[in-house]
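Protein chain data
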Amino acid sequence: MRLPALPRTVAFRPVSSLLRDPRVLLSVCAFVGLLLASVGWIVVTAVLARHELLAAQRNLETLRGQSNTAPSAGPAAQLRTAEAAVRSAARHAARAHRLTTGPAWYPASHLPLLGQPLRTVRGVAEASDLLTHDVLQPLTRTASELATAAGNDGGHLDLAALRRAAPLLKDAARSASAVRTNVAALPHATWLPAADHARAQLSGQVARISSVTDDAAMAARVMPPMLGAAGPRRYLAVFENTAEARGTGGLPGAFAVVTAERGRLHFEDFGNDSELMDVRAAVDMPAEYTALYGPSAPTSTWVNSNVSPHFPYAARIWAAAWLAHSGQKVDGAFALDPGALSGLLSASGSARLADGTPVTAANVVALTERTSYATYQDIPERKEFFLDVARAVSQRLLDSADDPSRRPALLAALHQQFEGGRIKVWSAHPAEQRDLQQRPLGGALPTGPAPLAGLVVTNAAGTKLDYYLDRSLVWAPGLCTEYGREVTATVRLSNRAPASGLPAYVTQRVDNPPYRTRPGDNRLLVSYFASERAKLVKATLDGRRTLMSGAVERGHPVYTLDLELPAGSSRTLVLHLLEPPTDRAPTVLRQPLVRPLQAAVRPYRPCSG
């Protein structure tokens, strides 16, 4: 069978001839008109959508500003304002979403390169719509229901209502996480800066809201049982003195036994560290913990019980020590320091000691960690003063928690201290502890492949000079090699203690160094916690090569230097590391001391391949 022969030539009509054809001309004009109309429609609706998104943005900023400031109206009025702001934001976001959908936006947003900012705008509008409807509205509705339930119970927190809200908050947390993922996947660094700015602004908002929603969902799960919904609970509260640094923050000093039943707290007993000084805690610790901290005897020396930055280790030791001392089991433990008390007093109002001395947000840190050492030379008298402060502040906080007009501000301040790591919580109940350990208030040293930059200092001199300690950490990534990414961690420590005028108890050295020291000189164990599988290439101290001891804790290499820090001096420690390549910024471990850590993470390009 023979195939038919193909024609040897094909006749094409000239373009000019085609355009003289009325049907072709009409089609071309219709296409151009449709294209221009689509472009015009996109431009007009983009302007309108921007107006709606800016209005929603203003509503959310109003809501954020209200949560960050002291209340000028009652809780009911605050909730009504919040609900109105969220409803308004939801309406604006829904209109923006509708304006950026349809037959013109979809194909335009999928054009190569040109469509990237349009896809970003569409994604921002859709994410704003989902955020306001699926996350913020359930949150404000739940808050209103809890406030109503509290009003029906004489102003106390209704644990049954909180437990009922748990599924709704869990769904809201999932929605917030999904929105966060979607926003992160939107095109950025496009040719339209306005679209990039909108994405970046929304990304920051979503991150904050997602974190708050996660915390709210977790609180609805763990608060009812921890506050005694199913029966009384007992906790050990330990007050840390950050004038003498330890791994979790400050040296463990005064303590209190707290009971919780049906949402109400009561402080049963107060004591100081002298009572638990030589109690031996019967608790098994991991071999790596014993290898690193064994010389400090943390399970038999109360003041060294929190030498590790991993708070659950300290809490387990405290619980076992209290059992050995009193015969009582506790359901958990929490730690807080004068910085946390300052934050809480800013919401509750000041407390007052029996002699009339005010304890305020402005003076509680200095009162307990500086002036008390000059005022009370007698150690038992000074420790009794610490207990007086703890009793007065605790009672003031309980009174404020029972005051519906102060409770919202107090809860906001409490959340801020949780996020900052100044209040840490541990539960002896495994299910609760799993939830707590995943959040900043759990005080856990993270595990896993995510990069870590952790500076931890421990006072090795027995002084109270860490009140005057400044710390900075700069994490700077370098080149990527076949062996990993080069990382430089620069640590700078400064002893700002005055040259004279400090009480002897503050400056006295109990380490008996084999070299001459002056009052105000300090000694620190400086530890750097690196990313998993990181290797130390070299270290320098003030520009000279130095050796650091190596260990491992929870999968992280730990490099430690015994450092003398004379009064008025600054010293710079630089670690050159080789870490596994990653596109993620490191988690910065922030040990809470009197003066906050100044930390910086330098920008870097991802390692290719």
Observations:
- The two ends are 56 Å apart (CA to CA).
- Residues 483 and 567 are 41 Å apart (CA to CA).
- Residues 31-36 have pLDDT under 50 and may be disordered.
